[in-house]
């Protein structure tokens, strides 16, 4: 790995540092680049005693060392963690979903919230049997097919009434282009949600 010795002049003075080539710095990351800069400032302060560069190098060395001591993750910020396998198995992967209880849960906080599911016409009866009769989802009030939705809610007042009744609409991805243009504006006016899953 070749490093270039570059002088960067700031006002009347300047300081020397090592700059890693962009393609290598992209691979090894900003953290390694900072460490390389710290080492360059350290060597400048050793070999260039009693000079202006020595003074600036020591100052920069202190600044970088202070930044390195700071924690990488702030407690106030969220952390998204994505884990990927190095070698993917040949068989099809099955993903296990783990429910995490939310502080402001949609289900438990307010019993008055109601859900409406809009799906494909052929699946409406199946989902009604599963979700309403077998599992009895608490706040789920209605499951309708897209044909029923388009037939019953042509008029703007009917759509407004529908948005007043339900707080959350869950829409199947294959029918969202029929449903979303109709429901988006009235739901935004009421600060309610439309979820495509």
Helix content: 40-55%
> H/E element string?
EEHHEHEHHEHE
CATH class of the largest domain: Alpha Beta
Number of helices: 6
Largest sheet: 4 strands, parallel
Arithmetic mean pLDDT: 68
**Could you tell me how far the N terminus lies from the C terminus, measured between alpha carbons in angstroms?**
49 Å
Count of the separate structural domains:
2
User: What's the shape?
Assistant: elongated
Beta-strand proportion: 15-25%
Q: CATH superfamily name of the largest domain?
A: Ribosomal protein L1/L10, domain II
Q: What are the SSEs and their pairings?
A:
Layout: E1 4-10, E2 13-19, H1 22-47, H2 52-69, E3 115-119, H3 121-134, E4 140-145, H4 146-152, H5 156-165, E5 168-171, H6 176-189, E6 193-196
Parallel strand pairs: 3-4, 3-5, 5-6
Antiparallel strand pairs: 1-2
Helix pairs in contact: 1-2
Output the keywords:
Rossmann fold; two-stranded antiparallel sheet; Ribosomal_uL1/biogenesis; Ribosomal_uL1-like; membrane; transmembrane helix
